[in-house]
Amino acid sequence: MKKFDKERVLLAVAGPVIALVAAVALTSIVLLASGKNPFEPYSLMLEQATYSDIQVLIINQASMYYIAALAVAIGFRMNLFNIGVDGQYRLAAMMTAVVGAHLALPSFLQIPALMLVAMLTGAMWAGIAGVLKVTRGVSEVVATIMLNAIATSVIGYLTLSDKFGVQLGNNMTTGVMKKSGWFPGINLGSDVGEIYGLVFLAILMGVLYWLVLNRTRFGFDLRATGASETAAAASGVDAKKMVLTAMLISGAVAGLSGLPLLLGDAHTYSLTFPTGLGFTAITIALLGRNSPVGIAFAALLIAFLDKASPALDYATPVAYEKEIATIMQGLIVFAVVISYEAVRVWGLRRQQKQVGEELAAAAANNNSPKEVAAR
Amino acid sequence: MGITKRFPGVVANHDIHLTVRKGTVHALVGENGAGKSTLMKILYGMQKPDEGTIAVDGEQIGFSSPADAIVRGIGMVHQHFMLADNLTVLENVVLGSEKLYGIGGGARKKIKEISDRYGLNVRPDVLVESLGVAERQRIEILKVLYRGARILILDEPTAVLVPQEVDALFDNLRELKSEGLAVIFISHKLGEVLSVADEITVIRRGTTVGTAVPAETTPRQLAEMMVGSELPTPETAESTVTDKPVIQVAGLTVFASGAPSLGELAEPTGAGLLSEDTAETAAAVRRILDDVTFTIHAGEVMGIAGVEGNGQTELIDALIGLKHADSGAITFLGDEITGWATRKRREKGIGYIPEDRHRHGLLLESPLWENRILGHVTEAPNAKGFWLDIKGAQEDTRRIVKEYDVRTPGIDVTAASLSGGNQQKLIVGREMSHKPRFLIAAHPTRGVDVGAQAAIWDQIREARREGLAVLLISADLDELIGLSDTLRVIYNGRLVADADPATVTPEELGSAMTGAASGHLEHVAESAAPEDEAR
Hints:
Chain A: It is a multi-pass membrane protein. Chain A: It is found in: Cell membrane. Chain A: Its main location: membrane. Chain A: The chain crosses the membrane at residues 9-34, 54-76, 88-105, 111-132, 141-160, 195-213, 243-263, 269-287, 294-312, 324-343. The structure holds 2 protein chains of 2 kinds. Chain A is mainly α. Chain A has a domain at 53-313: ABC transporter involved in vitamin B12 uptake, BtuC, CATH 1.10.3470. Chain A is 71% helix and 3% strand. In chain A, the strands form 2 sheets. Chain A has a two-stranded antiparallel ribbon. Chain A has a two-stranded antiparallel sheet with strand order 3-4. Chain B is α/β, with parallel strands linked by helices. Chain B folds into 2 domains: 3-227, P-loop containing nucleotide triphosphate hydrolases (Rossmann fold, 3-Layer(aba) Sandwich), CATH 3.40.50; 240-268 and 277-343 and 476-535, Rossmann fold, CATH 3.40.50. In chain B, 34% of the residues lie in helices and 22% in strands. In chain B, the strands form 6 sheets. Chain B has a 7-stranded mixed β-sheet with strand order 16-19-20-13-21-22-23, sandwiched between helices. A 6-stranded mixed β-sheet of chain B has the order 6-7-8-3-9-10, with helices on both faces. In chain B, strands 12-11-14-15 form a 4-stranded antiparallel β-sheet. In chain B, a hairpin with a 2-residue loop joins strand 17 and strand 18 (387-388). The longest helix of chain B is centred in the first third of the chain and has 16 residues, at 163-178. The chains are: A mainly alpha, B alpha/beta. At the A-B interface, helix 8, helix 9, helix 10 and helix 14 of A face helix 10, helix 13, helix 14, strand 18 and helix 17 of B.
């Protein structure tokens, strides 16, 4: 038994490690091709990671990536591709900011209320895609991509100054949220910065994700549907209900992913609110193999690339383009998809062979007919 | 030729010999899983043989892709059509072979020529989406001929057709062979095979077991060759049938157009084979299950014999709740369950050994103990309320592995790493562990070695003694006769005959399976009583 456990750990680690090594190697080739030093940028970026202000930025960014990637992963676990996390997250952040600017409750009610608004908005937006898939058979991939574009327009409309928009300098915002909805952070001093309090929400969600998926009946049904839709249906899973539920949960989680920034720092939704979080989250969920721990590492890695790369522009004596980090992210996606599939197939074969050998050995001892592995 | 094909761990084809002559229709028959598809994939270049050779016109050849095969004049008409709905017939035909005759007038002329020569009656400029199934099939045939095929492989071409269309197809095939082409016709409908083929090769368990000349062969003999009778006999000792009905099915009817519950989800964009209007007309013609009525009592095993594809799958799906009845009622222990969801049926005591264990019975890449939970996630020992009881499930998996002799190094290996027989033992153990009142057992011993087969039979017999009602569907006639208390024969979605397993012979069952006999099968004089009695 122990042997198979070790085996599983090996397989789990092999995929990401191969992917990262391949991505780094390919990035070096790109650097070489453009006539640059193929190794220096890494050491420059690693040096950045030793500064505590950069570390704070990485952790804060990673917390948002983490929640968004969980939203993607929930879909992935049952073969649903929610590309709409970005739209769900932006719309939810905007709605939360609007409610936060107009609703004034004491803190212990205000913050839960805001979270609820974020979850409901995200769930509603993802739910549209879910309903379309269940009732009309519309692919959730197409529907969520469309909804991303629609979300952009809806946000543009709602932030007009005659709706909820408030002009602040040359930035269009939704007005500053009431103080009771600000979530306190951990202040590490003025030159280091503040860690968002909702980083802990991200950790809590990771635990919840693991618990629900691996320890509940619902989670089993969800994973079974992802592993084999036909077997799950035969086991009694109502596929339509499952699709809708998974979309709603994924959307609700996506809705929460903007809150660390919104409640911890920005306190308003504006034109400068980050976009594209949901797309990066797809990379992270892939890299993290949908596992809560894997996603945490992946979120930290991507946040590190994000936050350490700007320094490349100012490096002396030779400056590098910070887009190197973007190239690397892209290469990671490729490498991840390829190496994971290769490792999966290889692992399955290997196990079949091992089981076959072990049984053959046992059979030889017992002198009973040899069993072979079949797929 | 002596082709051998091995997959990791299993030998799918073993020492296959097949010779197809010019100007003939050569039928290849065998049960599902006998290795027909693998053989065809090898002939068509999709897979490579591990041993053996293929020769066309006396010249030994090796294919590495379907493109090579088509160059050699071998073309395949798949069971599932590969046509683009929103293109015209002409466009579909030239797609991928634009170089042959261009895409305009030249191609149209060639299509007309082929169509006229073989009587295919294809109109080049209509949209494929407006066509019915039979016409689509003729386009597929034309596509292959257009690419210069001299040897056509047709994979179960009649599966999707109604009888008149089948006759028309056979006329086309006769045209083809009179022009000197060779046709390989894969089927397990014996009547059709005998009517169209010039030669027949039978495959069983991955190897060729014999050839037959249709004129000198009866469906019975063919069925015997297909099924074989080399296995230990599964005899049931004394009858344990009670008069307490467990499951009653009345007038159960399922239409062909009734989309499977998951089909829509699995392929959201797929419009399916039929466009809407053809689907409606086809539904009027094709009832996959037609007015099926039976009762199984506690302690009774009812066997259903039939050539595969005559409605067995739909019957199972309707009983477990994967497909909903278009009319009729199912009553289980006094409760009408026609509208129940699958999970409720399973919780209330319907056990299910599926036909296709990889698709419906297992999560191949999950560990054995998770597979033990599958299908019974709400029940003890797998769950405590809302939470999974992982310890309990693992404990019970170990028990099943031990009691049912599942050969595995442990319960953490994936289901995919077990052999088919051991996978089956795990499924049987899982279903039996929940003390079902009614068990749907579809091919419970398919792909299982002889020892395990006997163990599974023992399990079914023992449960039967304790009052289990069993619906047994099997391609193995000896298994059916040996295990069942009553026997029914399904043909074209109808229960057309019944028989007493104590006296009936496989030959007599075989003739009813091909539709040749109906009613109550008496041992001496077959086909005497009226059909009503059978239903």
